[in-house]
Amino acid sequence: THRCCRPGSSRRLGVRRRAAAAMGRRPFKCYRYQKNKPYPKSRFNRGVPDPKIRIYDAGKKKYPVDIFPFAAHMVSVEKEQLSSEALEAARVACNKYMVKNAGKEAFHLRIRVHPWHVLRINKMLSCAGADRLQTGMRGAFGKTYGTVARVEIGQILLSVRARDVHKPQVLESLRRAKYKFPGRQRLCVSNNWGFTKLPRERYEALQAEGRLVKDGINVKVLAPKGPLDSRTLSKLPLSMLGD
User: Fold this and answer.
1) Cβ–Cβ contacts within 10 Å for residue 187, how many?
2) CA distance 61 to 99
3) Distance CA 30, CA 38 (A)
4) Angle between the 84-101 and 167-178 helix axes, to the nearest 10 degrees?
5) What does the pLDDT look like over 88-120, one tens digit per residue?
6) Stretch 214-229: mean pLDDT, rounded?
């Protein structure tokens, strides 16, 4: 008898077909460039797999703004897409180096991009007997496959704030995280105080004037003019308030 007619041959053929259908993941060169329109998860786009990265802040994220004055950023030099798997790998690499060489209380790492764009795949079978199952270009709009972040030239990917003494460790951890991404990235040392938008000289001058109010990892600048709020009025002596 022919080997396809032997007992159990249909079962083996089914296993072979399922194995071909559950092939390995595509290389990321298939999805590196921004070719399609943004395609986020929505009520029309259901069944999207969860992104690999679930934590976007590592280290001492609740330390106030004045403890970590130094900040460095990893900046993208290409317009491309970064997978959630690559973002998670970069976070792990950067976090592990900083914990080992600076201490787990010596930094705050933040991932600045989010993988909300959904990838699609039009899966084809390539095993024996698959020609009866394939439809070619009929119904070619693929199934959801994964998520990526769409990044622009000059966009910040990762940021780390720390004390000034840990500047070499911060730059080395970001350099190691670079190898998890395709394309080119640059490391930049920030002129600002931590994650704030104030340059260091301006921050220190406003702090000396008492015009800064801590706001988590950021600060608010009090205006020198304008109406006083009820809290400020309550602190003033009665002699200044008049009748």
Assistant:
1) 16
2) 14
3) 16
4) 150
5) 999 999 999 999 999 999 999 999 999 999 999
6) 83
